[in-house]
Design brief:
about 575 residues; 28 helices
């Protein structure tokens, strides 16, 4: 059995048996098989006449876009109605949603995160009704004002610029207004958690058995790991924690570290503490969310923000760490640089595998990322709103700098719908660089860094050596992304309904979230503070992250402004 949390990869030549004996390949097989099942369910069981229903809403949106120089109330209604047309309503899709349910929000009683009785739900709804009615009334008033402004602009045949601007502003204010909280419903997720535990144990256990691990010990340990993960979801769902962006990811690490550094991680739990196994599977699942048609939709500005700024920040941060801070560990330097500049923990895992970073270095990079992600997802929207930064610019800035995909969407939503769309799309574009970064680091480390450190500078490195170093699960991520993009493109107008609003929201994204949470819990359980202490010496990792992120914030903002407002303003106007 491999050591928990180790990044070390076998140096041997590739063998056919690697396909069923290596962790990277099992991450691919598990992710791909789950996605195949998902595509069959979410595409084959699409709503009746879905194409006609989507076409109807598209026609309304097109007509409204041609009628007015701004997005009208009717445009937004059609857009909202279109989002309701998806493939998450079938019995099979509902079963998947039931199976993947996570602990919900709670304030005072942690048990509320898992179950709510019918009586308690009714009492909570009754108590919240006055506030909900107030919010509804405010939104109704804003909608009425928007309707009156739009009618005034229409009466002038949309030729009065001031009336058009007034209508656009009031419609935007209505869209940005806080919606009333959804009514609570009776729920009990204990049965679904038990079912998910069994399914996940079997799925991951099959791979564990094939790789030669002790199946029984893995299964027993997985129960403990799953319990820690569920506890992390519960803590991240507490109302105060949720408000300030302290989600399940940092809690999984915190809880794991508390156990590891107090009573010590129990020996029976250690066989299931396999960070890479879970996160690699999650990254393969992430490929289904990186769709090239979505990348094209936001155009060249988004590509410049993600694909030009990111490698510049990565290289500059690495050089800063080596020549200014003089960090003794090159692997820690590049792992933090990739984590901060590309897309957080996903890039850190891929880069750590490519350069063979120590597990303590990976833990440190991930920890820094999660702390600053929580801070930035709260601070950036506040700053953007305070200075009145345009939504598109604010969204692009967030998308290119905040590390976590989920945090990006949440931070963008604090600003508005446009900001959330732009932020999420740019982060999706940036995620493509996970594979390219891992490949570049693998090549650089095998041809430059390691030969120099071993006194064999200038030696020739064969393609097989680079291949052995390259993290294979990245191929699964890229392959899934390409196939998912082809499927999405082939579905045409109903792509959003079946893929983005169907498969991704209904299955692949929740599955990925569970996989990542298991990985973060594993990181915490496998981390000892004494092992981390030497890497904090002199505070260089923190200085590297702060300086690198500051440079990233500056360069991303400048590039976003140039691309969206100077070079391609027509694209910005159409968003």
């Amino acid at each position: 059995m491999s050591q928990a949390n180790d990044i070390v990869v076998d140096d041997g030549r590739a063998k056919l048996s690697d396909l069923w004996k290596k962790e990277d390949y099992w991450a691919i097989w598990i992710g791909v098989i789950l996605l195949i099942i998902g595509y069959v369910i979410f595409i084959s069981q699409a709503p009746t006449d879905i194409a006609d229903k989507v076409a109807k809403q598209n026609q309304i949106m097109k007509a409204e876009a041609e009628r007015a120089p701004f997005k009208t109330l009717e445009f937004y209604k059609a857009q909202d109605d279109k989002k309701k047309i998806n493939s998450r309503g079938s019995d099979a899709a509902k079963q998947i949603s039931w199976l993947l349910a996570r602990p919900g929000k709670w304030s005072d009683n942690p048990l509320d995160s898992f179950m709510t009785s019918k009586e308690a739900a009714e009492a909570a709804n009754a108590a919240a009704k006055p506030k909900a009615d107030e919010v509804k009334a405010k939104r109704a008033a804003l909608q009425a004002e928007a309707k009156a402004a739009q009618d005034a602009a229409a009466a002038a045949e949309f030729k009065d610029a001031s009336l058009n601007a007034d209508a656009d502003a009031k419609i935007t204010a209505w869209r940005a207004a806080k919606a009333p909280a959804a009514e609570k419903k009776a729920r009990n997720i204990f049965p679904s958690l038990g079912s998910l535990l069994i399914v996940a144990m079997v799925v991951f256990g099959i791979g564990a058995t094939a790789m030669g691990w002790n199946t029984a010990k893995f299964g027993i340990g997985f129960v403990g790991l799953f319990a820690v993960t569920v506890l992390a979801f519960m803590m991240g769902s507490q109302s105060w924690m949720s408000k300030y962006g302290i989600g399940s990811e940092p809690w999984a690490i915190i809880i794991g570290m508390l156990i590891a550094n107090t009573i010590g991680t129990p020996k029976w739990l250690l066989p299931a503490v396999q960070t890479e196994y879970y996160i690699k599977t999650g990254l393969v699942l992430l490929g289904a969310e990186v769709l090239f048609d979505k990348i094209v939709a936001i155009g060249i500005p988004g590509i410049f923000v993600a694909w030009v700024v990111t490698p510049i920040v990565l290289i500059v941060t690495y050089l800063f760490g080596q020549y200014v801070l003089k960090m003794p560990s090159k692997t820690l330097n590049i792992t933090i640089s990739a984590d901060m500049s590309v897309c957080g923990t996903s890039a850190a895992i891929a880069t750590a595998a490519a350069c063979r970073a120590k597990k303590e270095e990976l833990t440190l990079a991930v920890g820094l990322s999660l702390v600053f992600t929580a801070i930035m997802m709260v601070a950036m929207p506040m700053f953007i709103n305070a200075i009145g930064m345009p939504e598109v610019l604010g969204g692009a800035w967030i998308g290119g700098t905040v590390d976590s995909t989920g945090a990006v969407a949440a931070a963008g939503a604090f600003i508005g719908q446009k900001a959330m769309y732009v932020a999420a799309t740019i982060k999706m574009i940036q995620n493509v660089l996970i594979g390219l970064t891992a490949f570049g680091v693998a090549v650089y480390w095998t041809t430059k860094v390691e030969p120099a450190e071993s006194g064999m500078a200038g030696r020739k490195v064969g393609l097989m050596e680079i291949w052995n170093r390259f993290p294979k699960f990245v191929l699964g991520f890229l392959g899934v992304s390409i196939v998912a993009s082809l499927i999405s493109g082939g579905l045409g107008d109903i792509s959003n309904s079946l893929v983005s609003d169907g498969l991704v929201r209904g299955m692949s994204s929740p599955l990925r979230t569970w996989c990542f949470a298991l990985a973060f819990a594993s990181i915490g359980l496998g981390t000892n503070f004494r092992e981390l202490a030497p890497y904090f010496k002199g505070g260089k990792p923190l200085i590297l992250y702060v300086c690198g992120q500051s440079f990233n914030l500056f360069l991303t903002l400048v590039m976003a402004y140039i691309m969206f407002y100077i070079v391609f303003p027509e694209i910005t106007a159409s968003i």
